[in-house]
Design a protein that fits this description.
The chain is α+β, with helices and mostly antiparallel strands. It is 21% helix and 33% strand. The protein has a single domain (3-144), classed as Thiol Ester Dehydrase, Chain A, CATH 3.10.129.10. Strands 2-4-5-6-3 form a 5-stranded antiparallel beta sheet, covered by helices on one side. The chain has a two-stranded antiparallel sheet with strand order 1-7.
Length: 159
Amino acid sequence: MNLLENYTLAELSPGVTATYSKTLTYDDVVLFARCSGDVNPLHLDAEYAATTPFGEPIGHGMWTGALVSAAIATRLPGPGSVYRSQSLSFKHPVKLGDTVTVTLTVNEIKERMRLVVLDCEAYNQEGKLIAKGVAEVIAPAEKQSLQAGQIPDITVGSP
């Protein structure tokens, strides 16, 4: 199992960074569509997607947003963080098989509110900027080291 450790406000300073990476699979697209209700054929129907400017199915934009959330929850500041706000603009589509790496960088700390402002960038394996934005999180009050929760395997099948 993976051990998750957080940063408290006292341990953070501008310039501290963390990364989180994941490769987009077809199962990810189907599960994201199921969880979110976003069943846009651009993501799920190869024939339809071939008629769009993308030429093939692409991942949901908010799948990348979910990676930002995962990076905050597991890396910086980590467990115990409260995700307060997010601005995010999408610059390039994520295609099946793309590996997206999110980088979080501490930009500002507002100690009175325990608020941490994070610059967020996501790049694919070719170095193309996928998304960029700013997140605000409330840093954990106490240091924590926790075992990562186990997620059961899920099999995606046709209806």
